[in-house]
UniProtKB/TrEMBL annotation:
Catalytic machinery residues: 83 (nucleophile), 193, 195
Lineage, broadest ranks: Bacteria, Pseudomonadati, Pseudomonadota, Gammaproteobacteria, Chromatiales
Organism: Ectothiorhodospira haloalkaliphila
E.C. no: 4.3.2.10, 3.5.1.2
Keywords: Amino-acid biosynthesis, Cytoplasm, Glutamine amidotransferase, Glycosyltransferase, Histidine biosynthesis, Hydrolase, Lyase, Transferase
Role: IGPS catalyzes the conversion of PRFAR and glutamine to IGP, AICAR and glutamate. The HisH subunit catalyzes the hydrolysis of glutamine to glutamate and ammonia as part of the synthesis of IGP and AICAR. The resulting ammonia molecule is channeled to the active site of HisF.
Gene Ontology MF annotations: glutaminase activity; imidazoleglycerol-phosphate synthase activity; lyase activity
GO biological process, one term: L-histidine biosynthetic process
Catalytic activity: L-glutamine + H2O = L-glutamate + NH4(+); 5-[(5-phospho-1-deoxy-D-ribulos-1-ylimino)methylamino]-1-(5-phospho-beta-D-ribosyl)imidazole-4-carboxamide + L-glutamine = D-erythro-1-(imidazol-4-yl)glycerol 3-phosphate + 5-amino-1-(5-phospho-beta-D-ribosyl)imidazole-4-carboxamide + L-glutamate + H(+)
Subunit structure: Heterodimer of HisH and HisF.
Protein's name in the database: Imidazole glycerol phosphate synthase subunit HisH
Record-linked SUPFAM superfamilies: Class I glutamine amidotransferase-like (SSF52317)
């Protein structure tokens, strides 16, 4: 029996993530919400969701001694980051006056500018909240069966700025084009919430069930 760990470090209600994964899981795969290091490292695949602020997220990971555990998991098996689970993979976030993050992907996290406008000149609200398109910038197994520019559900005020465009797997337009998905080795991470993104989101989660890492 294969095992997918959804990491619970006290940052938000993860029930919808678990339910979505259970919905698309093969018969030989179980999904578990886990807190401990041993459970995470026993998993065949790891899902790292999250919401809230980067500083609080990193503090929770330090308190639970999960930083080295997540680093090992992300470099040894398929690893899916969702929302804050994408942002804290970077080197540093500007949120809360500056917060050092996990440093698994080179780059930073920046806040959307307040003065951004859409194509009609209307001021855009921060946070970016609601449905928006994700443009796939490179082929990846997790995009299999998902139409180009499919719409996903977003809720965030900060976005990642990778140091290298080579890790960008998808972009989204919100006043400016920003990296909404990144991929590096065993890591795929996305800013939107696939568990709330109807058919495209469920397809991405289903693809993750079969992905063995890499492109």
């Amino acid at each position: 029996m294969k095992f997918i760990a959804v990491v619970d470090y006290g940052m938000g209600n993860l029930r919808s993530v678990v339910k979505a994964l259970e919905h698309v899981a093969p018969a030989d795969t179980r999904v578990r919400l886990v807190e401990g290091a041993d459970d995470i490292l026993e998993a065949d695949r790891v899902v790292f969701p999250g919401q809230g602020a980067a500083r609080d997220c990193m503090a929770a990971l330090r308190d639970r001694k999960l930083i080295p555990v997540l680093t090992e998991a992300a470099t040894t098996r398929p690893f899916l980051g969702i929302c804050m689970g994408l942002q804290v993979l970077m080197d540093r976030s500007d949120e809360n006056g500056g917060t050092d993050c996990l440093g698994l992907i080179a780059g930073g996290v920046r806040r959307f500018e307040d003065h951004q406008v859409d194509a009609q000149g209307q001021r855009l609200k921060i946070p970016h909240m609601g449905w928006n398109q994700v443009h796939q910038t490179r082929a990846h197994p997790l995009w299999e069966g998902i139409d180009q520019d499919s719409r996903f559900y977003f809720v965030h005020s900060y976005h990642v700025v990778p140091a290298s465009y080579q890790v960008v797997a998808g972009t989204t337009q919100y006043g400016l084009p920003f990296a909404s998905a990144v991929a590096q080795d065993h890591i795929f991470a996305i800013q939107c919430h696939p568990e709330k993104s109807a058919a495209p989101g469920l397809t991405l989660l289903k693809n993750f069930m079969h992905w063995t890492g890499g492109v």
